[in-house]
Structure formats: structure tokens, C-alpha cells
């Protein structure tokens, strides 16, 4: 069988195809598998602890993994090594999640493709090669308009008392906002980016409020200025978005695009289904 995976920092979706007729055999989900954040043993455990993977691993002849944190050589090599140690009979391919977004959103046609999920990124795809105006340095320095970006903003606004009182009351009843708990999760636990991204879910409850609307508008504006406008063909090729942040706040995202005279061709919450169609057509 062929295993195709779309691995984010929060979760990873896996689909198995029959290697003869490309029909789907099963699909599963594991915890996130970002090799830029997680150590080798944690990556291994998160994969192998899934019973279905453990049961079927020796039948896998090819693994096509698209993942967050796979845009630079060292973490890519680390994850490839982990996958090879599990799927010992398989050909292993590891590419960054940007390529899964390209194949899923535009079916490999010329376009600008953006990710707004737990993390964020963008590229211009010329039909053969993905070009990025800047290499992403991850959730601490970049990831504009991502789940972890908005999670940080919410926590900061809460502690600086910039959050409206009614929303702040709901925020503190929804999450453990004790400084000790927040600092432990940020500085001692694994996947602090995924931890921050979980706070972004809170915005869905108040997406009609002026406060959340302004927060989103500011984040999306920053993303357009840093991650879309620098591409020379921003106004002449289709623009696609992948990810929950883009999907659930589509109307605000399109408002910001319109401000720059741009239109968004399509938005997908998850790329995995379209990614499978792409692989089945190969």
C-alpha cells in the first residue's frame, strides 16, 4: 500500500491507498508530527502508537509525507529517518506541507498558495517549482495570522487587560490562565506552538465581536503585506488558502484581500482529500 500523510503541528492525517488501483483502504489521524519542534523519540512514538499503523506497517511500499517543519534539511532528514525505521520496506518521501497545499488547492497549476492553520506560510508555484519570498522561521518569529499567532495575541491582550471584559470573563472560564500553567506549557512542554494554536479556537465563539474582527483584520493584513504582496504575480494568478483559520474566518480574509485589490480563488479547511485526488491521478 501507499501511505499519504498531511502532518501539521497539532495533528497528522494519514490515508492508505492500494498501490495497484489507488483506491482508499483506510484513513487515520495521529498527533502532530513537526520535526522542527519534536525530538526523534517523540516522533517515533506518535506514529507507532497508532494501532492501525503498527498493524499494517510491513505492507507499506511507499510513504509520501507532507509536513509542517519540513522546509529545511535537518528536520526533514530526522523525520525521514524515523519513518524509515518504522516502514522498513518502503520508499520514503518527505516534503514540506506547502507542497501538499499546492497539490490540494491548485492541482499543481500556477498559483499563490497560503497556509493559515496552527502555523502559516505561502508560496508562488510556477507549475513546476514552489518559490517562497522568505524562509519561515516558525512560530516565535513569524507565522503571521496563524493559530499560534492569534493565541499569543489573545493571551497578551488578556493579561494587559486589552480584551473586553465580557470576552475576558469567558476566556478565563474556558482556559487555565494561571501564569504558572501558561509558562509551563510554553517553556517546558512539547509543541508550544500547538498549545498556543488551541487558544485561537476561542475566537470562533466571538467572531462577530468588534474586538475579534479587529484582531483578525490586523493579523490578516500583516500576512498579506509580508506573505502575498511581495510576489510579483500576486494580482495576476489565482490565490488559494488552506487551513482552519482561513476557513472559519473567510469573510474577514476576503475583506482584507479586497482592500488590496485581490480576490481569493478558493479556501480549503483540510488538504488531505484533494491531495488524495492528486495522487490518484498520477
What's the helix and strand layout?
Elements: E1 2-7, E2 11-17, E3 24-31, H1 40-48, H2 51-56, E4 62-67, H3 73-86, E5 91-96, H4 97-106, E6 111-116, E7 120-125, E8 130-131, H5 147-159, H6 165-174, H7 179-187, H8 192-200, H9 210-227, E9 239-242, H10 244-248, H11 250-259, E10 266-268, H12 272-280
Parallel strand pairs: 1-4, 4-5, 6-9, 9-10
Antiparallel strand pairs: 1-2, 2-3, 6-7, 7-8
Helix pairs in contact: 1-3, 4-12, 5-8, 9-11
Oligomer: single chain
CATH topology of the domain at 2-101 and 272-280: Nucleotidyltransferase, domain 5
Physical arrangement of strands within the biggest beta sheet:
3-2-1-4-5
How many distinct beta strands? 10
H/E order of the elements? EEEHHEHEHEEEHHHHHEHHEH
Distance between the termini: 15 Å
Fold and architecture overview:
By secondary structure, this protein is an alpha/beta fold. It has a domain at about 1-100 and about 270-280: ATPase, nucleotide binding domain (Nucleotidyltransferase, domain 5, 2-Layer Sandwich), CATH 3.30.420. Helices cover about 45% and strands about 20% of the residues. It has helices at about 40-50, 50-55, 75-85, 95-105, 145-160, 165-175, 180-185, 190-200, 210-225, 245-250, 250-260, 270-280; strands spanning about 1-5, 10-15, 25-30, 60-65, 90-95, 110-115, 120-125, 130, 240, 265-270. A five-stranded mixed sheet has the order 3-2-1-4-5. A five-stranded mixed sheet has the order 8-7-6-9-10. β4 (about 60-65), α3 (about 75-85) and β5 form a beta-alpha-beta unit. α1 (about 40-50) crosses α3 and α4 (about 95-105) packs across α12. The longest helix has 18 residues, at about 210-225. It is globular, with a radius of gyration of 19 Å.
Amino acid at each position: 500500500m501507499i501511505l499519504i500523510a498531511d502532518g501539521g503541528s497539532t495533528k497528522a492525517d494519514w490515508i492508505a491507498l492500494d498501490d495497484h488501483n489507488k483506491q482508499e483502504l483506510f484513513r487515520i489521524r495521529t498527533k502532530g508530527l513537526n520535526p522542527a519542534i519534536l525530538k526523534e523519540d517523540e516522533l517515533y512514538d506518535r506514529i507507532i502508537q497508532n494501532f492501525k499503523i503498527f498493524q499494517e506497517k510491513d505492507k507499506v511500499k511507499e510513504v509520501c509525507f507532507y509536513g509542517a517543519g519540513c522546509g529545511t534539511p535537518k528536520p526533514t532528514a530526522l523525520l525521514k529517518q524515523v519513518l524509515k525505521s518504522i516502514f522498513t520496506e518502503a520508499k520514503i518521501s518527505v516534503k514540506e506541507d506547502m507542497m501538499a497545499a499546492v497539490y490540494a488547492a491548485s492541482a499543481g497549476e500556477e498559483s499563490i498558495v497560503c497556509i493559515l492553520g496552527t502555523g502559516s506560510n505561502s508560496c508562488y508555484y510556477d507549475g513546476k517549482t514552489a518559490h517562497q519570498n522568505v524562509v519561515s522561521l516558525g512560530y516565535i518569529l513569524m507565522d503571521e495570522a496563524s493559530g499560534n499567532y492569534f493565541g499569543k495575541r489573545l493571551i497578551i491582550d488578556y493579561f494587559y487587560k486589552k480584551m473586553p471584559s465580557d470576552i475576558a470573563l469567558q476566556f478565563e472560564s474556558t482556559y487555565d490562565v494561571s501564569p504558572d500553567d501558561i509558562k509551563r506549557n510554553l517553556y517546558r512542554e512539547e509543541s508550544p506552538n500547538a498549545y498556543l494554536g488551541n487558544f485561537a479556537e476561542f475566537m470562533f465563539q466571538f467572531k462577530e465581536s468588534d474586538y475579534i474582527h479587529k484582531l483578525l483584520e490586523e493579523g490578516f493584513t500583516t500576512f498579506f503585506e509580508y506573505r502575498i504582496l511581495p510576489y510579483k504575480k500576486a494580482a495576476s494568478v489565482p490565490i488559494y488558502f488552506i487551513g482552519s483559520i482561513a476557513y472559519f474566518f473567510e469573510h474577514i480574509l476576503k475583506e482584507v484581500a479586497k482592500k488590496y485589490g485581490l480576490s481569493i480563488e478558493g479556501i480549503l479547511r483540510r488538504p488531505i482529500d484533494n491531495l488524495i485526488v492528486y495522487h490518484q491521478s498520477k
